[in-house]
Amino acid sequence: MASAWQLECLEARINSLRNEISRVTEKQPLRAVSRSVYRSFRAVLDEQAKAIGEARRAFVSGTGSDNDRLDAIYDVVSEQLWKVTELFQTCDRVDSPRIPFELLPSLSAVARALLGSTAHILVHLSTEYNYQIQSLRRYFDERNWHREWRPPRGGLHDELLLMVFPSYEVGTTLLHAVAAHELAHELAHRKQDEINRRTMNAIGRVSREFNDEKVEWVKSVAASAPGTSSSVGQDRAYEAFKRRNERIEKGWVRETFADLVAASLVGPAFIGALDRISAGASPARQDTTHPPLSKRREIIGTYLKDNYPAVANDPAWDDVMSGTTPQLPLDVFTRCGMRICDEIVEPLTELITSTVRSPLADTAEVEAAVGMVTYCIDNLVPPSYNVRIRNDDDVASACWLLLYATWRYRVSKPLFDSLCRRYGWTDDPTAADTAINSLLLHSLQNLGVKASWRRTT
Amino acid sequence: MSLSRSAVLLRMDRTIPLERRLVVEPFFDDVTRKAAPASIDIHLGNRFVFLRRGRSVLQDPLRLSHQGEEMENPEVESPEVENPEAQGTEVFLPFGTPLYLHPGQLVLGTTLEWFRLPGDMRADVDGRSIWGRRGLIVVTAAAVQPGTAGTITLELTNVGEVAVVVSPGAAVAQLVFGQVDTVDLYGRQPPFVVGNRPIFGVYRKSHLERALIPDARERRINAAAR
């Protein structure tokens, strides 16, 4: 039973967090977009503070409140406070000068082209080796904080995306090829019904093939639970089964969709960036929220061969596409999931082709971009030099093409070695890497500058 | 001899092979404004470095201030190089955000434009008189060498008596170009390919400086060499 003291502690914690958010909000310089997020958090906390304040006063005065109700209020407010704290941690320090703000206008443009709404982006640098982009509006909606949402400058329907990537990779502009996959997750959320409709037959068919094995799995898990009655053991085993199954049938389907969209936008550059993110990950901690990396590589390779053969057959990508990753033994869920991924490629391809405008579709344009980027990087000129921007759509496709072609340059041993020799970097190839990433960052910034110029002339 | 603006624009012509071409990216030939006849305008970038007064009482690239403690205790190892980047606080300002420069304040900035000079061209950064008359000195060390590739670090100082307000995107300086005998750039590391951030740079002593102004570590090396 929550005591008056515990209610007071909870109220004090809410006030501390509110003060911290106020302090961050009033810091200069701070972007208007960041302020809107912090104001939204404050609005949530204000509601919780109000509820807990009223409860505490009623408890102290002994009027009209019973213990059960107070406990319920305490539990609800505690949970809300925990959620705000968790989300605030991810939204804290979104104005650190280490963040490569230069590329945000271009990323906003690609997000707008893909998602169909104006997108503002906040960046949080994480100490974890992970890359994510998520809609903050969706975060708030999932937590029933609709009334407290304060729209970013621009409009109620503007999207506000939170991007998280490793702090030690701020200088690796090439890594942002993964943004294609992460933005595709947001697209998947909008297209969920259609994805379900197109994939349900394949999922059902494959799941039925593995039914017997899954039943055996449930039985073995139930039997291995020590000291529990058979019905309790079976219930727990069934719950575990449902979780694993849902992870495959929903999660892996979305991951495959996102992979195919990323392949449409940046081709094998996505695999290069994914390898960079995954390098050094312990096989013992293999992530089951995604299909195995080897399967993803295989699916993307086949998808590119079928839809973008010029890209797939480019020998510059051979090393990247033939990479292997260590793998854990495959259990029934993984095997079932991998089969599902294979079977859904065709129905998803139809959806993606009609929804996503791929810059890789025009072979001549891709060849021209590759040639131009190679020529520019060889001469330490930002590859945006030859890019003409007529409108915001040009920014989006130019951004993806620059990422594709710069990655291609980087993974091509002859080109990279030649760059090192030309500028005396043979003994220190990291200097060449720094130069390539700087050139790309400057190029992505220039796309936004050129678009601004175009808008005013 | 300085090149005229039209000569500079000719050197930027896209029919010239890229390795011999002057590149300014982005470059917009602003026909709405009367251009200077012997220079091109350059604009302020978004990143600035403010000196941390609480952490550095002086700038000592020659590491002379360590000599006292080294004389007293020969075992003290002076740092091989100073860490200049630790002396500044970096800030990113979006376009249009005011930057207030107070009297006597020195701030490092960077150009919006990326420059790639071919082997037969050099340049000097000059302030623009419209800003100079308001107390804003835009550069203290002006030379841009052949082969330079990257943005240019600008030293912004207010020598006036009241604060001056600038902003990223403002045309605060100009670049005056000159011709040099061609320098063979193959195999040479280009100076300052760092992209978008203003830098202090690391002071590397010349052989003569190490001989005339050695620190403790260099004295030991010189003694060992004898």
Briefly, what is this?
The complex is a heterodimer of chains A (457) and B (226). Chain A is mostly helical and 457 residues long.
Strand content of chain A: under 5%
In which order are the strands of the major sheet of chain B placed? 4-3-6-12-9
Average pLDDT confidence of chain B is 83
| Sheet with most strands of chain A | 3 strands, mixed
Strand content of chain B: 25-35%
Number of helices of chain A: 18
Helix content of chain B: 10-25%
Number of strands of chain B: 14
Low-confidence stretches of chain B: none
Outline of chain A: globular
Strands of the largest sheet of chain A, in order across it?
1-3-2
- How would you describe the oligomerization state of the chains in this entry? heterodimer
Gross morphology of chain B is globular
Question: Which structural class do the helices and strands of chain A define?
Answer: mainly alpha
Helix and strand element order of chain A: HHHHEEHEHHHHHHHHHHHHH
Helix-strand category of chain B: alpha+beta
Q: What's the total number of strands of chain A? A: 3
For the sheet with most strands of chain B, the description reads:
5 strands, antiparallel
Number of helices of chain B: 5
Helix content of chain A: 55-70%
Order of helices and strands of chain B: HEEEHEEEEEHEEEEEEHH
Characterization of the model:
The complex is a heterodimer of chains A (457) and B (226). Chain A has 457 residues and is mainly alpha-helical. Chain A is built from 18 helices and three strands. Chain A has a three-stranded mixed beta sheet with strand order 1-3-2. In chain A, helix 1 (4-25) runs parallel beside helix 3, helix 6 crosses helix 9 (230-266) and helix 9 packs parallel to helix 11. Chain A starts with a helix and ends with a helix. By secondary structure, chain B is α+β, with helices and mostly antiparallel strands. Chain B has five helices and 14 strands. The mean pLDDT of chain B is 83. The longest helix of chain B has 10 residues, at 216-225. Chain B has helices at 5-11, 67-72, 129-132, 207-212, 216-225; strands spanning 23-25, 40-43, 47-51, 88-92, 99-101, 106-110, 114-116, 121-127, 136-137, 143-144, 149-150, 153-158, 164-166, 171-179. A five-stranded antiparallel beta sheet of chain B has the order 4-3-6-12-9, with no helix packed on it. A four-stranded antiparallel beta sheet of chain B has the order 2-14-8-10. The chains are: A mainly alpha (457), B alpha+beta (226). The interface between A and B is medium-sized, with 36 and 31 residues.
